[in-house]
Amino acid sequence: MQKALPLLSPGASIILTGSTAATRPQSDLPVYGATKAAIRNLVRGFAHGAGAGQYRINVLSPGGTRTQGLIDLVPADQLVAAGAMIPLGRLAEPEEIAAVAVFLASDASSYVNGADLAVDGGFAQI
After folding, report:
1. 55 catalytic per annotation
2. What pLDDT does 23 receive?
3. Domain 10-125 adopts which CATH fold?
4. What keywords sit in the KW lines (predicted)?
5. Residue ranges per domain, the chain?
């Protein structure tokens, strides 16, 4: 990433993928949660180095998302149970995650820098 920064256009938006596992680690995936927490801190460090207008950098942390891969891997009853644990009562749809990525990439988020935006139906808050 450090080598790519000088190649970016002024005002570029960098989006790294985090996870709710960074703030709500799971006992069966401790290394995964630790790496996602490291991404959060990496972004915070780079955000401090962003000069005026150089770039913005943020983390998009999706929660459980109904991707085809997840549907193929997890039995339907377990998907329903996972959705029930989320305050909004369901898993995210891929388009909902994509919409937040588009927002972070757009000028509409021009004053967002160093943020970790959880798109998880409120799961990280409970």
Report:
1. no
2. 84
3. Rossmann fold (3.40.50)
4. Oxidoreductase
5. 10-125
Strand order of the β-sheet with 55-62 is 12-17, 55-62, 116-119
Catalytic: 32?
yes
Could you read off the pLDDT of 49-85 as tens digits, one per residue? Answer: 887 778 999 999 999 999 999 999 999 999 999 999 9
Angstrom CA distances, 14 to 51, 57, 103, 108, stand at 14, 5, 12, 14
In this prediction the pTM is 0.90
What pLDDT was estimated at residue 27? 86
Residue among 3, 36, 55, 111 flagged as catalytic: 36
Note the pLDDT tens digit of each residue in 37-52.
Answer: 999 999 999 999 887 7
CB 57 within 8 A of CB 16: yes
Q: Which of 3, 32, 55, 111 is catalytic?
A: 32
Q: Are 87 and 30 in contact (CB under 8 A)?
A: no
Measured between alpha carbons, how far is 14 from 5 in angstroms, rounded to an integer? 10
Phi/psi of residue 119, nearest 5 degrees = -120, 80
